Structure formats: structure tokens, C-alpha cells
Automatic annotation (TrEMBL):
PANTHER family: UPF0145 PROTEIN SCO3412 (PTHR34068:SF2), UPF0145 PROTEIN YBJQ (PTHR34068). It holds the Pfam family YbjQ_1. InterPro entries: UPF0145_dom_sf (IPR035439), UPF0145_YbjQ-like (IPR002765). It comes from Streptomyces phaeofaciens. Belongs to the UPF0145 family. This is UPF0145 protein GCM10010226_28360. Transmembrane segments: none annotated.
Length: 121
């Protein structure tokens, strides 16, 4: 049921193709399984908040917070792929991220999309 040699450019090797588009050239959707998501909430530790506050006074990238957000997004995406795989999908279409503050204690990151089974045309 996996996608062999789809030629995708995902950063990680996976048997589940994840795309932001509604279709995949060269493939047809054989079955729509439904919405899948991966969710995580991360709090910032005091040190990074103080560092970010000081950095914001002089300008520039907040590298510690950027690193944390990248890790958080990757974790949310990994959970999305796990859920899609568990439901029998080999692709996720219309993939998106949603990021919001969670009760002023952290950042909520949700990766979501539509789990499908695709086959080469």
C-alpha cells in the first residue's frame, strides 16, 4: 500500500506522501479516509523567554525560539503521518499547519490534512 519512488522531496523518508495540494500529478485518489491531525503544545522555558525579550530590544532572529518551533512543527507532522498510516492511508492531501497561543503558557501547533489512498495512474 506504500508509495514507491514517488519522487517526493519531503525532508524525512516516509511511506506516507504529504502534500499541500489537493491532488498529486501522476496519481489518482482511490479512497478518501478523512481528516487526520497531529497536535502538540509546547511551553517556552524561562531562559528562552528572557533571552527573547533581550534580543527583541536589539533586533534579529530569536534562534532559540525558532529551533523550538521547528521541533514542534516536526513533532506535529510526525503525529499526523502516524495517524494517517494507522488509518490505512498512503498520502495526506491539503496539508496545513495551524499555530496559536495556548492559554498564555505555550504554543499549540496542529498539522492537519485529508488522509487518502493514492495509486499511480
Amino acid at each position: 500500500m506504500g508509495i514507491e519512488d514517488y519522487g517526493g522531496g519531503q525532508g524525512t523518508q516516509s511511506d506516507v506522501l504529504v502534500v499541500t495540494t489537493n491532488d498529486v500529478p501522476g496519481f489518482r485518489v482511490e479512497q478518501v479516509i478523512g481528516e487526520v491531525f497531529g497536535l502538540t503544545v509546547r511551553s517556552r522555558h524561562l531562559g528562552s523567554q528572557i533571552g527573547a525579550g533581550l534580543k527583541s530590544m536589539v533586533g534579529g532572529e530569536l534562534k532559540g525560539l525558532t529551533k523550538t518551533l521547528v521541533q514542534t512543527r516536526n513533532q506535529a507532522m510526525d503525529r499526523l503521518v502516524e495517524q494517517a498510516r494507522a488509518r490505512g492511508a498512503n498520502a495526506v492531501l491539503a496539508f496545513r499547519f495551524d499555530v496559536s497561543e495556548a492559554a498564555d503558557v505555550g504554543t499549540e501547533v496542529c498539522a492537519y490534512g485529508t488522509a487518502v489512498v493514492v495509486a499511480r495512474v
